[in-house]
Design brief:
- By secondary structure, this protein is α/β, with parallel strands linked by helices.
- It has a single domain, classed as Aldolase class I (TIM Barrel, Alpha-Beta Barrel), CATH 3.20.20.
- Helix content is 40%, strand content 14%.
- The chain has 10 helices and 9 strands.
- A 9-stranded parallel sheet has the order 5-4-3-2-1-9-8-7-6, covered by helices on one side.
- Helix 4 links the parallel strand 2 and strand 3.
- Helix 1 crosses helix 8, helix 2 runs parallel beside helix 8 and helix 4 packs parallel to helix 5.
- It is globular, with a radius of gyration of 18 Å.
- About 2% of the residues have low confidence.
């Protein structure tokens, strides 16, 4: 399928003039033509939890809010290796260590690099990392240890970000993404929908992630967490989630759109509609501070919706 990505205005016009099924069917055609039928799977380990200095309004791990989030420094290597081996055995393609906080320290990077080298030596996993606003030199260390993809969510559009976080900026994130690309890493960057943003701002997020060079765009659905400023944020409807994914496919036709946090609250019917409506990646297993979906159930779901697993 030829053609250029849709503009935000064009995508919004489609949203105004077509039914959900029409949008999802068209997005599914674009996905199949541009990305094929293989679903991209990944799993993450919460490698450092809580005590984050940042004030992101959605996050359970911020020190600014009282959420009862589990707190620990660096996860033991034995737990990391057990998780890595299990994911490798299940056939998960990508595996990431994710840390709380603005960034990890130099000493912590060295410890994590040792873990990544061990994982690379004992599994066939494609290694990813999400460790905050790192410098080019710090990212090079991770790259040399076997990390091939760096994850740094933009979280929301540049126009809405200041409403949700004041301790760092959208540009801080883009700077990290540029540095990761400069050392030769792939980029995974998406965000969270349902935080009070407009549909236009969701598409702005997809466009900005695409233009920043992201090959993977995770789509999280807000799970309001008690104690955070968004604890009473009304849930967006399942149809709105499905429409958002379909429109994001038109804006970012050549990216992996990855089902991430929040999908556990979706009905089976709408989950299938979304997987047949532009989505072609999924985070599976346990997530950061909420429970993910059972791996076998996910694999059965992917097969039922026409996807093949990576070799």
């Amino acid at each position: 399928m030829q053609g250029t990505p849709a503009t935000i205005d064009e995508a919004l016009q489609l949203n105004d003039n077509y039914t959900l099924d029409e949008l999802c069917d068209a997005a599914n055609e674009v996905r199949a033509a541009r990305e094929g039928n293989e679903i991209d799977t990944c799993s993450i380990v919460n490698a450092r939890s809580g005590r984050c200095s940042e004030d992101c309004k959605w996050c359970a791990q911020s020190i600014h809010y009282s959420t009862g989030c589990e707190e620990y420094d660096i996860i033991p290597e034995t737990r990391v290796m057990a998780a890595a081996r299990a994911n490798d055995e299940y056939g998960v393609k990508r595996f990431s260590l994710v840390t709380s906080g603005r960034k990890v320290t130099a000493a912590q990077i060295d410890r994590f690099c040792d873990m990544f080298r061990k994982i690379a030596g004992e599994t066939s996993l494609y290694l990813c990392a999400s460790m905050g606003l790192l410098s080019k030199n710090e990212l090079q260390k991770l790259k040399d240890a076997g990390v091939k993809r760096y994850h740094c969510n933009l979280e929301t559009s540049s126009s809405y970000f200041p409403e949700l976080c004041t301790t760092h900026t959208h540009e801080d994130k883009l700077r990290t993404i540029r540095a990761a690309r400069e050392v030769g890493m792939d980029i995974c960057s998406g965000g969270i929908i349902g935080m009070g943003e407009t549909m236009s701002q969701r598409l702005e997020l997809a466009q900005e992630a695409r233009d920043a060079g992201a090959t993977s765009i995770p789509v999280n659905v807000l799970s309001p967490i008690k104690g955070t400023p968004l604890e009473n944020q009304p849930l967006i409807s399942e149809e709105e989630i499905a429409r958002t994914v379909a429109l994001m496919r038109f804006v970012a036709p050549d990216c992996t759109l990855r089902f991430a946090g929040g999908r556990a609250r979706m009905s089976p019917k709408m989950t299938e509609r979304i997987l047949r409506g532009g989505m072609n990646g999924a985070m599976i297993g346990d997530l950061l501070t909420t429970i993910g979906n059972n791996v076998k159930e996910d694999y059965d779901l992917f097969a039922a919706t026409g996807f093949t697993l990576p070799e």
